[in-house]
Design goal:
The protein is an alpha/beta fold. Helices cover 44% and strands 13% of the residues. It contains 17 helices and twelve strands. The strands form three sheets. The chain has a seven-stranded mixed sheet, sandwiched between helices. β2 and β3 (41-43) form a beta hairpin. Bound molecules: S-adenosylmethionine (SAM). The site of S-adenosylmethionine has 21 residues, from loops.
């Protein structure tokens, strides 16, 4: 017979009161499937799974009625709930990181006697991560021609191209009919005059008819999407060809001195993210490695692998979301340790091989479907 947990045990494990569980039972949100011989509520593994969903949605701020609709939806199985919860939590974490950054910025400004405007003060609420960090983006982020060439080649003869998570439009191909999609108002506002029209939307819900583009591209953005698989399927739905520039999380620890020796917290950002193989499979894509040239013009996280001093520069870091997402403490420590090692010669000693390379394999990949 299936094993059941008593109401007291479940309450203890989930860190809620027995009264809460009684309430959930009374309102029909979570009815335990059995009773003990003494008449106490007893929870099966399936009941516990449902409780976990209820509590997780609750923690995300959903109301009990909304939660009932969510957990009763027959089209959403346990894995789909986990994926959705994960996406929502990642979004919440990124928003919290963005708020911390905004608060730090204001504290810094106040310490120098500068008052922030009402607009600046309110910007942190409801902001996309890139609404907070996006203004630092153009300082070091631009088209890297060798990577652009790979992306444009993969687009083939596509004429109508959709660029999802387009940002300031660094990789939009010239000579084609481009439409951009970008959820952050700050990023949209920074698109150069004359660039492609840009729609305010997110990858998971592209406001276009099926097959309305010859190709859809997404560059350095998929890792920000709450549900990357859903976003890629949307791209597949609206376009005949899909080209994605992203990176392979597996093996990160052994690939790049910055994350292995100075910023192991990077691993936390990968936790629970779909594997590259799953992303590729979701859209039937093939995968091609993209080596990063030593003098890469686009200042993304890995770009300065042979120019370590660049990571000491605040402008370089602020244009890369990783540094905000790991938090100020990890960032400060990593930068301090890197500075010390550069000064002492320890970095050079440890990374002799790196300095002889023209391009490095750091897990960057093109997915082409
Ligand atoms: C690192 S930037 C890359 C911008 C541009 N593709 C480039 O290569 O310069 C990541 C972009 O993804 C956008 N983004 C974040 N979440 C998104 C989502 N759910 N759907 C589409 N874009 C998103 C951000 O607002 C940001 O502009």
């Amino acid at each position: 017979m299936e094993e059941h947990l008593t109401v007291g045990r479940v309450a203890g494990l989930a860190a809620v009161t027995v009264r809460t569980l009684h309430h959930y039972d009374e309102i029909g949100l979570l009815r335990p499937s059995a009773r003990t011989s003494a008449g106490h509520r007893a929870y099966s593994a399936r009941d516990v799974e449902r409780l976990r969903e209820v509590l997780a949605y609750r923690r995300l701020g959903f109301g009990l009625r909304e939660i009932a609709d969510l957990v009763d939806d027959p089209a959403t199985d346990a894995v789909a709930h986990l994926r959705r919860l994960r996406g929502l939590l990642v979004e919440q974490r990124d928003r919290a990181a963005a708020m911390v950054t905004a608060i730090d910025r204001e504290l810094h400004a106040r310490a120098r006697g500068i008052r922030t405007t009402p607009e600046e003060q309110l910007q942190m609420f409801g902001a996309q991560l890139y609404d907070t960090i996006g203004s630092a983006y153009p300082a070091t982020r631009r088209t890297e021609p060798r990577i652009a060439a790979r992306i444009w080649e993969a687009l083939g003869d596509a004429e109508k191209v959709l660029n999802v998570g387009a940002g300031t439009g660094s990789y939009e191909p010239p000579g084609r009919l481009v439409t951009a999609v970008e959820p952050s108002a700050v990023m949209r506002a920074q698109r150069p005059a004359g660039s492609a029209p840009c729609v305010a939307a997110a990858a998971a819900n592209l406001p276009f008819e099926d097959q309305s583009f010859d190709a859809a591209m997404a560059v350095s953005t998929v890792h920000h999407w709450p549900d990357a698989v859903a976003g890629l399927r949307e791209m597949r739905r609206v376009a005949r060809r899909v080209v994605v520039f992203t990176y392979e999380g597996a093996g990160w620890r052994d690939r790049f001195w910055l994350t292995s020796d100075y910023l192991p917290e990077f691993g936390r950002l990968l936790t629970g993210r779909p594997a590259l193989a799953d992303l590729a499979q979701a859209i039937g894509a093939r995968t091609e490695p993209v080596p990063i040239p030593w003098d890469c013009a686009d200042g993304f996280f890995e770009a300065h692998w042979r120019r370590p001093e660049a990571y000491l520069d605040e402008h370089v870091r602020r244009a890369v979301s990783v540094w905000t997402r790991v938090g100020a403490e990890a960032e400060d420590r990593a930068v301090r340790e890197l500075r010390d090692d550069l000064e002492s010669g320890r970095w050079a000693e440890r990374n002799r091989d790196v300095m002889t390379l023209e391009a490095a394999e750091l897990g960057l990949r093109l997915l082409i479907a």
